[in-house]
Amino acid sequence: MREVTETLLTLPMPILAMLLLGLVLWLHRGWSLVLIGGATLAFLGLSVPLVATWLETQLGEAAPSFDVATPGDAVAIVVPTAGIFADSQGGWWPSSASIRRAVAGQALAERTSLPLVLIGGSPLGEAETEAVSVARQLGMIGSDRPDDPTVLLESGARNSAETAAAARTIAERLGGTHIVLVTSPVHVARMAANLRHVGLTVSAHAPAPHASPQQPLGVLAPYLPSAAGLAGSRAALHEYLGILWYLINGHIVMADLEPGS
Q1: Contact between residue 118 and residue 136 where contact means Cβ atoms under 8 Å apart
Q2: For 4-51, how does the pLDDT look when each residue is reduced to its tens digit (9 = 90+)?
Q3: Which residues touch 32 (CB under 8 Å, ≥6 apart)?
Q4: In the predicted model, what is the mean pLDDT of the chain?
């Protein structure tokens, strides 16, 4: 049921529903034009990269930034994974988002000497867990090398709530409650809220954005509708819906969304 609801509420389905309803009500010209016009404006607006960036920024600023120079009482670098996929031969590979997060977390762990915690299970029943797949791909584990004691893997979590519970257990074992979250900017708000809900203090460290190819349109590119802009807006709105879903189901409360809580 959750998957069906999520599909119906995620772009572009709401816009398509507005257009369809506008066509159904064509004989009632006023309502029809309002719906079709609103759907068109929504589609164009959400396709503008500048709008997508703004939506993403609001989510990414939901936790205070971690200051490498003054790590304070932080006890671990926590990296939630972001999916894996199988190749044609049945081998498992991390998603690009998983790799970006883990590489950023690994670099930060080396700079701070804090343990790196990779958390990710098999939410869809995959044959390999996300944490193991990422660690293997980055050479953190393998048959030809001993396991790195500064890298901790947690392979049971299937969602953000379970990730937070696992992070709490690990933080307590390390003797503190302050962790550094390394995840995609759009995921910061929901993940940080779940971590606060289980009593952890959260600082965030964003992976460096990957280099984009040179834009032929130059300075106009952020203001012109594009498929990339729509994809960015879709990812951000998906997270807002995820936050709403977690609020409805009691995984988090409104106070958990406050950066200073």
Answers
A1: no
A2: 676 767 788 899 999 999 999 888 888 899 999 999 999 999 999 999
A3: 22, 23, 25, 26
A4: 90
Q: Find the helix packing angle between 227-248 and 29-46, rounded to 10°.
A: 100
Q: Are 132 and 153 in contact (CB under 8 A)?
A: yes
pLDDT of residue 180: 97
> What distance in Å separates the CA atoms of residue 135 and residue 118, rounded to the nearest whole number?
8
* Residue from 251, 31, 256 nearest 23 by CA: 31
Question: Cα Rg for the chain, rounded, in angstroms?
Answer: 21
3-state secondary structure labels for all residues of 99-112: HHHHHHHHHHHHHH
- Domain ranges within the chain, ordered by starting residue: 2-58+221-248, 67-208
Topology of domain 67-208, per CATH? Answer: Rossmann fold (3.40.50)
> pLDDT digits over 160-189, tens only?
999 999 999 999 999 999 999 999 999 999
Alpha helices in the chain (DSSP H): 2-9, 13-24, 29-46, 49-60, 96-112, 130-137, 160-174, 188-197, 227-248
- This prediction's pTM: 0.89
Cα-based angle 70, 71, 72 (whole degrees, multiple of 5): 90
Widest CA span in the chain:
72
